[in-house]
Design goal:
Distance between the termini: 31 Å
Number of helices: 13
Number of domains: 2
Largest sheet: none
Helix content: over 70%
Order of helices and strands: HHHHHHHHHHHHH
Structural class: mainly alpha
């Protein structure tokens, strides 16, 4: 299939335009990160650089949460890495499009890989799409929206004098809870989730700092892997 793959500006433009509706949803998440970055004492440059260079909402929120507890750089890095492990599977799924491209085009596209651009591009690929630039165009649109909305949230978030009065202190947990909904796979999903929650609570009571995040992530991942192995 890779021999038939093309990479054109028309494909880039098509991916860019097709992602505009998804960008509206991403802008809300980006504004949330900008607002929280301001609340945690990051400068505007730091917040924008994190969104521009990391470009991964879930891991950015995890890093921000750990940063507020004065956790070590190692712990923050490991937690972000665990959250982002899913991108390895996504990158592998994009191989039919990217395998035949030059390294610059293939890895340049993967640098901006996120959940939304992956889902939209995979759908186009499965429908017979041959233009891999669709993937890059989709990702670029989301990157621009993400950075711009981060700046917006940072600039105007301070207008909320009492965030807790609006329940905004619960935004991060709410975001992560909502992210689990599409991952639900019947009742078998509840087992690793329960193990992760239990291990996190136990570590929270017995271990220092925010290490409970890593303990829960590892416990849940190992449980899920064991269940898949037995299936």
């Amino acid at each position: 299939m890779s021999a038939d793959i093309i990479f054109t500006f028309n494909g880039f433009r098509r991916g860019f335009i097709a992602t505009v509706p998804l960008g509206m949803g991403a802008s809300t998440f980006g504004a949330l990160f900008g607002f929280l970055a301001d609340q945690q004492g990051l400068s505007a440059i730091e917040a924008l650089l994190m969104s521009g260079l990391v470009f991964a909402g879930a891991s950015q929120l995890v890093a921000l949460e750990l940063w507020s507890t004065n956790s070590s750089i190692l712990l923050i890095s490991l937690a972000a890495a665990f959250v982002n492990l899913r991108f390895m599977m996504m990158a592998a799924a994009m191989r039919p499009w990217l395998a035949g491209l030059s390294p610059a085009k293939a890895y340049g596209s993967l640098v901006l890989l996120v959940d939304m651009s992956f889902a939209l591009s995979l759908s186009d690929m499965n429908k017979g799409g041959r233009d891999a630039a669709f993937f890059l165009g989709s990702s670029v649109l989301l990157w621009l929206v993400w950075v711009a909305s981060t700046g917006f949230g940072f600039a105007f978030g301070h207008l909320l004098s009492d965030p807790e009065a609006w329940g905004l202190d619960f935004l991060v947990p709410a975001c992560f809870i909502s992210m689990t909904v599409p991952l639900y796979q019947q009742r078998r999903s509840l087992v690793p989730w329960s193990v992760a929650a239990g291990a996190s609570c136990l570590a929270w009571q017995t271990l220092p700092g925010a290490s409970y995040l890593l303990v829960g992530a590892v416990a849940g991942a190992l449980t899920g892997a064991l269940l898949d192995e037995r299936r």
